[in-house]
């Protein structure tokens, strides 16, 4: 969790600034480096370090105070952070870890090898912090347990208001930002939340059980991270408590962690829509990028071969009506575009939990929508072909084919993501080459079949 600081916020990191920092590092002018970087927020410094080489960035990390560098490291790209951590000793990493909230500390340790994880944890002096980090490392990173932080403010229903305030002061020392005050019973089970206003208005001798609010949103520790994000987004929550199967309060998830989940999911869906099957970045190796891209490119190749075989089967049609050949790219392109449009809308709706009702209703709606769009486009295409080629039947064959192709493409684009979602498969895969390739093949097949039927070949 990012701590609020008094540093100035800089929105632009110029090349001149990067060059100045490089020069100062090369000259080992530590005092000048500190004077310069102290003017910047830790997020800005992280951006600066990402533009330096690993040796220079590591030099600055070792120069600055751990309280600041721990936040800097968490702001950096994971790949750059791993390179810097590799240059630090286990003792130095442990010092960084001790300055972080438990959720960020666990995330950083998880990026290390198992051997270094053990060594770093052993170097952490705060036994409670150490135990909490170990607990968080046992949860899957894509669950509520993997997202939560142990730092929170909890009060017991049996405390008086005076006792409550005293305990809250002690707990708040370890909490960066107090979003909510959670109420538990004698068995540490979550039973509600406490309004700060109600606490201030209550009598000092009143018990918390008489002033707390029983209604409180929470998630199970094993809940999927995407579902947690959906819940917090739906109810506009800044934080949400995490409980186990017995409703014992374990921790809380804050909005900054959810923003990261949403961002990562959006990046993954975008890559899948582009036909990239693995999580890769522009700076990854050629081999990694090839492994991520090749499967869908191969699918596109197979689809192209399929389209070739279909067209070869209609060789006789080409010989009599060569004009049909020149409209093949148009038909294929329209099929691909409509399919991607339909699937993108459905995938977005599924992500936002806006898709309700049966699949049949969705398909019927998409069929009428595609028919209307297809009819309007077909009228224009019919006029163009008739005027330029002078053949009514040819224009009719191409136009009718276009309507049919658009309808089929719309249905495929709607059905596939819905079907994948029902089967527990990420529907984002349906917005990429899978839909485009399948619609190209079906589009060409339908195009020539209808054209052959109307033209009587």
In a few lines, what is going on in this structure?
65% of the residues lie in helices and 6% in strands. Mean pLDDT is 85; it is low at 1-7.
What labels describe this entry?
6 strands, 22 helices, 457 residues, mainly alpha, three-stranded mixed beta sheet
Protein described:
The chain has helices at 15-26, 30-37, 42-50, 54-63, 66-75, 78-87, 90-98, 102-110, 114-123, 127-137, 144-147, 161-172, 196-201, 225-234, 255-273, 286-313, 315-320, 323-326, 328-351, 359-389, 392-422, 433-455; strands at residues 153-156, 181-184, 190-194, 219-220, 239-243, 249-254. The chain is mainly α. The strands form 2 sheets. It has a 3-stranded mixed sheet. Strands 4-5-6 form a 3-stranded mixed sheet. The longest helix is centred in the C-terminal third of the chain and has 31 residues, at 359-389. Residues 1-7 have low confidence and may be disordered.
């Amino acid at each position: 969790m990012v701590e609020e600081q008094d540093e100035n916020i800089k929105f632009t990191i110029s090349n001149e600034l990067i060059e100045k920092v490089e020069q100062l590092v090369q000259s080992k002018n530590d005092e000048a480096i500190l004077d310069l970087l102290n003017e910047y927020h830790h997020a800005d410094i992280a951006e600066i370090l990402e533009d330096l080489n690993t040796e220079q960035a590591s030099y600055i990390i070792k120069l600055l105070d751990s309280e600041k560098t721990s936040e800097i490291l968490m702001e950096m790209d994971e790949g750059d952070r791993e390179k810097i951590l590799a240059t630090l000793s286990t003792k130095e990493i442990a010092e960084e870890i001790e300055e972080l909230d438990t959720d960020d500390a666990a995330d950083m340790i998880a990026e290390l090898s198992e051997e270094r994880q053990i060594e770093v944890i052993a170097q952490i002096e705060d036994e409670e912090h150490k135990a909490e980090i170990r607990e968080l490392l046992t949860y899957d990173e894509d669950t509520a347990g993997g997202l939560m932080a142990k730092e929170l403010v909890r009060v017991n229903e049996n405390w008086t208001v005076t006792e409550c305030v005293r305990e809250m002061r002690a707990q708040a020392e370890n909490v960066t930002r107090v979003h909510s005050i959670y109420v538990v019973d004698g068995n540490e089970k979550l039973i509600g939340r406490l309004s700060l206003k109600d606490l201030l208005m209550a009598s000092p001798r009143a018990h918390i059980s008489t002033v707390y609010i029983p209604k409180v949103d929470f998630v199970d520790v094993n809940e999927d991270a995407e579902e947690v994000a959906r819940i917090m987004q739906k109810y506009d929550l800044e934080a949400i408590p995490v409980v186990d199967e017995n409703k014992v309060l374990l921790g809380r998830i804050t909005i900054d962690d959810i923003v990261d989940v949403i961002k990562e999911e959006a990046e993954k869906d975008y890559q899948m829509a582009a036909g990239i099957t693995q999580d890769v970045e522009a700076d990854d190796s050629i081999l990694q990028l090839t492994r991520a891209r090749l499967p869908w490119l191969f699918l596109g190749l197979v689809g192209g071969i399929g389209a070739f075989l279909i067209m070869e089967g209609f060789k006789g049609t080409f010989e009599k009506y060569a004009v049909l050949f020149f409209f093949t790219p148009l038909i294929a392109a329209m099929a691909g575009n409509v399919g991607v449009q339909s699937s993108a809308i459905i995938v977005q709706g599924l992500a936002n939990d806006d898709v309700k009702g049966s699949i049949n209703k969705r398909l019927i709606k998409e069929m009428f929508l595609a028919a209307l769009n297809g009819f309007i486009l077909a009228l224009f295409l019919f006029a163009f072909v008739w005027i330029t080629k002078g053949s009514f039947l040819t224009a009719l064959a191409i136009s009718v084919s276009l309507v049919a192709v658009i309808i089929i493409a719309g249905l495929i684009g709607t059905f596939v993501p819905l079907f994948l979602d029902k089967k527990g498969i990420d529907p984002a895969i349906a917005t990429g080459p899978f839909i485009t390739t399948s619609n190209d093949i079906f589009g060409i097949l339908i195009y020539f079949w209808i054209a052959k039927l109307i033209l009587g070949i």
